[in-house]
Amino acid sequence: MYPCILSNQGLVLAVRNVRALLLHKGTPTMLLFVQIPTLTRTILIVLITTVTLIGIMVRPWKLNEAVTTMTGASLLLILGLISPYDAFSTLVHDWNTFFFFLGMMSLSALAEVAGIFGWLAVQAALLSRNSARRLFFNTFLLGSLISMLLSNDATALILTPLIYTLVTRLRLPVLPFLFACTFVADTASFLLPVSNPINIIITSRFPLDLLTFLRLFFLPSLVVIGINLGVFYLLYSTEVLLYGIIMQHDNDTDESRVKLRCVSQTFGNVRL
Fold first, then answer.
1. How far is CA 148 from CA 141, 177, 192, 195, in A?
2. I need a labelling partner for 67 at 20 to 30 A (CA). Which of 93, 134, 255, 256 fits?
3. Alpha carbon 248 to chain centroid distance?
4. Cα–Cα separations (whole angstroms), residue 22 to 28, 49, 69, 98, 251
5. Which range among 56-65, 82-91, 226-235 shows the weakest confidence by mean pLDDT?
6. Could you tell me the sign of the dihedral formed by the alpha carbons of 123, 257, 244, 232, in that order?
7. If we measure between CA atoms, which residue out of 94, 76, 97, 79 comes closest to residue 17?
8. Cβ-proximal residues to 226 (8 Å cutoff; 6+ apart), any chain
9. Strand ranges (DSSP E) for the chain?
10. Distance CA 164, CA 178 (A)
11. Which is more confident, 112 or 178?
């Protein structure tokens, strides 16, 4: 995890260098002890950064994203396109962002091992009371809560697989619920400063205390979440409403509890 964070910051540093180079045209620079024009250096940095980003998205030969990003960052250093001093100063300057991200991911991992996410997913199903529509709403609510308190990465990486298992076991359409998890991870990521690592960068660069941050972002975030929920209800109304009617008229509550018990066994020992 930590190498991935460092390498991602290396890409950010590369982008900053591109901007700096564009502002200082015509100055010759060193590439492996060879003088090269600044324009050539800029093109090389952009090329390496672009290939690295494509590698992260495409994952050729099933390479881990950390390997790809570390390779790109290492090339920038080895070729002399970015000096070790600039790279180190960037790491030191943004140390709070790195350790925040590392701490939040560690906390999320511990919560996952403890079964908290699985328990919350089962509770969301129980509170839906056999209604797919309420379960869809609960998914948005749960995703917003986790994104707000444990960062949007926890929602995208941990909650989404659990919701997939949940709706699959309940024989519900998977796509609406997966979209709910992935989109609410972003729309709810500005509710609190800890909801997104980018928020830490914003609060570090600008004099924003907690109350100011909430005043500027909390209400707009709630509006965006509401719009997101409404749009998805319109897009998937046929699927969600259809299953909602079927589940609401299902009088076999024992069968429903058996389904939920199967789901709880997937997540761990959860009492129903």
1. 11, 19, 6, 5
2. 93
3. 34
4. 13, 16, 24, 28, 68
5. 82-91
6. positive
7. 76
8. none
9. 29-31, 34-36
10. 7
11. 178
CA distance 121 to 57: 29
Task: Give the global pTM.
Answer: 0.66
CA pair distance 264, 122, nearest whole angstrom:
6
For residue 71, give the DSSP letter. H
Q: How far apart are CA 6 and CA 82, in angstroms?
A: 14
C-beta separation of 191 from 217 below 8 A: yes
Structure tokens at 222: 């709630």
Percentage of residues of the chain with pLDDT beyond 70? 75
Interatomic CA distance for residues 28 and 80, integer angstroms: 13
**Alpha carbon of 117 to those of 15, 140, 173, 268: distances in Å?**
36, 14, 21, 10
Q: Among residues 117, 130, 164, 112, which one has the least CA distance to residue 258? A: 130
Residue whose entry in the numeric block shows the structure tokens 């919350």 = 120
* Span 42-67, average pLDDT: 90
- Full DSSP string of 157-202: IIIHHHHHHHHHHTT--HHHHHHHHHHHHHHTTTSSGGG-HHHHHH
User: What pLDDT digit, counting tens, does each position of 179-234 carry?
Assistant: 999 899 999 999 998 888 888 878 877 878 889 899 989 999 999 999 999 999 88
User: Residue 142 — pLDDT band, cuts 50, 70, 90?
Assistant: very high
Tokens 């707009």 identify what position? 220
